[in-house]
Amino acid sequence: MSESKKLTKRDITNLGIRSSFLQASFNYERMQACGFTYAMIPALKKVYGDDKEKLAGAMTDNLEFINTHPNLVGFLMGLMMSLEEGGATREAIKGLKLALFGPIAGIGDAIFWFTILPIVAGISCSFASQGSILGPIIFFLTYVVIWVLRIVWTHLGYNLGTKSIDIITENSDKIANAATILGITVIGALIASYVSINLLPVITVDGGIEVAVQTEFFDRIFPNMLPMAVTLLCFYLLKKKQINPIVLILGIIVLSIAGAAIGLL
Fold first, then answer.
1. How far is residue 4 from each of residues 85, 87, 97, 124, 128, measured CA to CA in Å?
2. What is the pLDDT of residues 168-201, one digit of tens each?
3. DSSP 202
4. Cβ atoms within 10 Å of 60's Cβ, excluding its own
5. CB count, 10 Å around CB of 144?
6. Residue 139 to residue 134: CA distance in whole angstroms
7. Which of 16, 46, 190, 195 is most buried per CB count within 10 Å?
8. Do the beta carbons of residue 64 and residue 77 sit within 8 Å?
């Protein structure tokens, strides 16, 4: 591979910014390929200059199927540009893309969709429910930080080059599993705060003592047992029975109204 450097830090920063267009053009045949290629074009043009044949080859390869995580795609783009600039073969570059877009997608999903955003959304909703402007501000700033980090990942991929391949392939499962476990733990803790079920019936026992079903029975045996049970039931219906989420939401609304009408809730 050639060691000539044609791309500057500004070019890589621009590549990170343009990675935002990954899903600007989307289809079910090639998924994110058009947006991926569009983001790469300025850097590819600078690397290949007037060599239209090599530029066409790179663009053709980039138009092949890809489906990876939008927030981490800059890392893959930077890594690929380091190979393009270094004169790697088209087979090597294509192989790299095919080998890494899957693991990067898994890591990104675990970190962003299953961990960071649910946690931040829970915190933001807590502030917002109390009438605090901090709720939407925190959520908005989180997205701003995630977007800015696109540039960081792109520079990291470009600077690490092929050194990063082994790190990703060897540790992708560990990183994804760790992030998923953290996310599930936090979401489990949020159930007690955001799922509320209060049974109204009162039972009269010997001696005329009235016992509230919710506070004196369920909460003493297992606090927040009902919210957990309802959440697990919803998860079962979604996961095992493939119930449509909209149907499930409507069902919960109907049951809640019926329970309130008969004095149960």
1. 7, 9, 22, 48, 53
2. 556 656 655 665 676 667 667 667 667 778 777 7
3. E
4. 11
5. 9
6. 8
7. 16
8. no
Task: Determine the pLDDT at residue 171.
Answer: 62
Distance CA 132, CA 134 (A): 5
pLDDT tens for 89-114 read 888 888 888 878 888 888 888 888 87
Q: Rounded distance, CA 213 to CA 196, Å? A: 15
| pLDDT computed for residue 2 by the predictor | 46
Check if the beta carbon of residue 202 is closer than 8 Å to that of residue 212: yes
CA angle 105, 110, 112 (to 5 degrees): 90
| Statement: residue 208 has pLDDT above 70 | no
Is residue 30 within 8 A of residue 63, CB to CB? The reply is yes
Backbone φ and ψ of 25, nearest 5°: -130, 120
Least confident segment among 20-24, 142-146, 179-183, 189-193: 179-183
pTM: 0.65
Q: What is the Cα–Cα distance from 139 to 120, expressed in whole angstroms?
A: 6
CA dist 137 and 238 (Å) reads 32
Please give the torsion angle defined by the CA atoms of residues 143, 145, 149 and 150, in that order, rounded to the nearest 10 degrees: 30
In Å, how far are 199, 246, 256 from 251, measured between CA atoms? 18, 8, 8
- CA nearest to 248, candidates 226, 231, 223: 231
